[in-house]
Structure formats: structure tokens, C-alpha cells
Amino acid sequence: MSKPALHFSAHEPSAVAEISGDWVLRHVEQLESLSQDAGRSARQPGTLDLHALQRLDTTGALLLLQLLGMPRPEALPQKLNRVSEAHRMILTALAAAICDGDRSRKPADRWLQDLLQRIGMWVVDAAQQLKLLTHFIGVVITTTIRNLLQPWRLRWTSLVFHMEHVGLDAVPIVALLSFLVGSTVAFLGASVLRDFGATIYTPDMVSYAFLREFGTLLPAILLAGRSGSAFTAQIGSMKSNEEIDALKTLGMDPVCVLVMPRVVALLFTLPLLSFIGMLSGLLGGMLVSALVLDISPAAYASRIYNFTDIQHFWVGISKAPVFAFLIGVVGCLEGFKVSGSAESVGQHTTSSVVQSIFLVLTTDAMFAVLFEQLGL
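Predicted structure:
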């Protein structure tokens, strides 16, 4: 085996380095010495002349790449002169492996760049989702108007089935949750009002909170997690089984067959569930007032009847159809976006719940500002 050698063919800082001998692990000490001498001379070889190179392994190839400043794989051919095919393949493969390793090991000083990249990708995805949602809302509204003009096209059996599943089956959980939240609001509010000697205003606080906000918001959030996710899973499973393609083959509109009954069922049932939620919340507040504050049920009801305007009820109930429409549209849209695997069904089901709750809360905040500006 011949000893490795390195000679510069010129005295310029970026010169051609002639490589000869065996650059293998057996001569690693001599190779490191040659590399250190080249580094101390402050001469960076621009290209390598490898016509005299006899043997090469990954150890020698790594040192040669270090001499060149660790170039990227696509820039390596311009830095190699008179190289054999075998040696070129070793150097290219090692350069590619090092480049891939650098990409997988993100330096600590790139955290800001990675953060900005993630934020940018999130913004782009959010914009695409908003565009797709807006388009789908337009399709649903167009189909709704067409079905209103031609009511015989609406699938009444499917509508009644979904009204039972979405509305009737959800009454117990909506009533129980609203009752518990109403009791909690009354208890916590009374604890604060007691310090000011104003516990008599507890019925006003509970009625104001539930008629305007909680009575509609709690059922909407429950339906987003209960019914919106079910819509996504049902339509997603149908898409995975190619049932939606079968509907199109039969000349049937998937939006009319699958989306309309679900959205209309939500539009009918969420206002009713909101009304039940309002009553349950008021009953929860009445129970706490009777047991903790010594306010009789008659006095509680009289206080609400005499000092709570009916406009608060209309403000709360008017938001229910909007929430229902958003929950139904998002749930169905995410179902149509399923790609075909069980994992995709799970991902889009989760996305449906998150998007629905986010849109419900955002819309509720916008309504609060609007009604405040209108003086309602």
C-alpha cells in the first residue's frame, strides 16, 4: 500500500490539490497530519486532482471533503478533476449523507428561523382552509336555496333521523351540563356579591349570562364535539369506502344527499337545545339561590321576570342558527377531505372539532361586540 500524499500545484489561496496514494483508514494518522498541514497553510484547495489516487474509503473521503470545505453534492463534480467513477461515487454518496444529516440535525441557533417557518406554514394552511371553507359555504347555500324552491328534493327521512340523533339524543347532556354550569355561576357570583351585600342580584347575573351567552354557547360546543365529529367520521368513512364516488356515478349530488340533511337538522335543533340550556341554567341558579342564599324559587322567578329584558333572550337565541350552520359545514367539509385511510379519518375528525369550537367562539365574540355597539 502506498502512502498518501497531497501537493498544491500553485501558490494561490484557491489552488488545485493533487491527491495520490491510498487514502484509507490504515493511514488515518498520516491523513490527519496532511489535513492539519493544509489547514495551517491557510490554503483552501478549489479543486482536487485525483488521477493518482489509488485506494479510497469513507475515512479518506471525509478528509477530502473537509479539504474542499464540505461542498453540497450538486457542487461536488465541479471540484473534482480526473476522478475515477468508483471514487466519484464514494465522494458523492458521503457528501449526500452528510448533507441529509445536517438537515435532520437542526442547529440551536436556527430556532427563530424554524419558528418563523412554522408560523408561515400555519398562515398559509389557514388561508387555504378559509378559502376552501368559503367555497363550501357557497355551495351549501346554493344547494339550500335550490332545495327550498324544490322541497321534494329534500331527503325527509334522513332529516328526521339526524334531528333525532343531533337534537333529541343530546337533550340529557345539554340539560345536565347547563344545570351544573348555572349552579356554579350562581355560587361563585354569590360569593363575590356577598361582600358587597348584593346577593339579591344573583338571579339577574345568572339570567343575563345564560340568556345571552352560556345558554347558546354550551350546546354549540357540545354539538361541535358530539355531532360535528360524527358528521366527519361518517362522511369520511363513506369516502374511504368509495360510497361517495358511487353516489356521483348514480347521478346524485353528495352535498344534497349527505350535507343538507345534517346542516338543516342542526339549524332546527340547536335553537331548541339552546332554549333547554337556558332553562336548565336558570334552574341551576335557582337551586343554589334557594339552598345557599335563602332566595325562594318564587322570589328568584319574580326577580328574573321583573328585571330581565326579553331582548337578552332574543340576543342569545339569534346566534344559535349561525353556530349550527358553522358546525354542520365544517363537520361535513372535513369528512370530504378524508384521503382514505383510518389515520386520515381520525386526523380530520379532530380537526373538525377544533375548527368548529374555534369558529363558534370567534363568532360569539364578534356577536358580543356587534350587539354592544347596537346597544342590545
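Summary: The two ends are 94 Å apart (CA to CA).
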